[in-house]
């Protein structure tokens, strides 16, 4: 899907604790830095739909498993991917695409490395059933 990038990430295993790479400024998908935040989602819960007008999302799942669904309302196209330690990648989502996500694992956490700071007026949100998708 145009505007979506999946980037495999490095995990460095160490018996005293592992290192999970997330992003470097030289990476494809880096579009500046506005803020970083963590978000959790319970197993079976779904958050969405949200569409950013300017923000580029860079999503990484270091714990649990989360299914992301992106919808392009200009082409009526869906893209979905499950990210976890077993499928450790960064999902980059450009502006003007709808996004929702579901907790698949037990303890689910994502990291968003956003290109701009959060601004409530910068994004549109709609109810989950406003976009028909079979979860």
Explained architecture:
It is a single chain. With 135 residues, the chain is mainly β. It has one domain (4-125): Jelly Rolls (Sandwich), CATH 2.60.120. The chain is 0% helix and 51% strand. The protein has a five-stranded antiparallel sheet with strand order 1-9-6-11-4, with no helix packed on it. It has a five-stranded antiparallel sheet with strand order 8-7-10-5-12, with no helix packed on it. The radius of gyration is 15 Å and the shape is globular.
SSE topology:
Layout: E1 4-8, E2 11-12, E3 19-20, E4 35-42, E5 46-52, E6 57-63, E7 65-72, E8 77-84, E9 89-93, E10 98-103, E11 107-114, E12 123-125
Antiparallel strand pairs: 1-9, 2-3, 4-11, 5-10, 5-12, 6-9, 6-11, 7-8, 7-10
